[in-house]
Design goal:
The chain is mainly β. It is about 0% helix and about 40% strand.
Length: about 120
């Protein structure tokens, strides 16, 4: 009989996620252990890896004016972030939860209007 090994297989790929996974930090929620959302004010945020998931979920918890625009970057493309223009892209001008199909997008960033706080997560399903 073969002897069983005590080692465990460690997956090296990101794999699928059934529930939304925070992309802003390694914390369960927000950008830090306190769960604070990403605060952006009339600027473009840093770029965040989507881990090749299919859907991007954005929760806007505060917005004082303007809108939130999602920029996408494909590593296989030019490597430059461009405004995401997918079919049925929601207009994000109010507090709410938004779901966006980002198939093939490797990184996203957010360009916002006045005093926006948001949370972002990705999932496969």
């Amino acid at each position: 009989m073969a002897e069983l090994s005590n080692s465990f297989h460690t997956f090296s790929s990101w794999g699928r996620t059934r529930t939304p996974k925070n992309i802003l930090s390694s914390h369960r929620k927000g950008i830090n252990a306190a769960g604070d959302g990403l605060a952006v004010n009339n600027t473009t945020s840093a770029e965040y890896k989507t881990e090749n998931q299919r859907f991007l979920y954005i929760e806007i918890s505060a917005i004082a004016g303007g809108s939130v625009v999602v920029n996408g970057k494909m590593t296989a493309g030019s490597g430059t972030a461009r405004v995401l223009t997918t079919p049925n892209l929601p207009t994000m001008t109010a507090i709410g939860l938004y779901k966006i199909d980002i198939s093939g997008v490797d990184e996203v960033s957010f360009t916002t209007g006045n005093n926006v706080t948001l949370y972002a997560a990705c999932s496969t399903f």
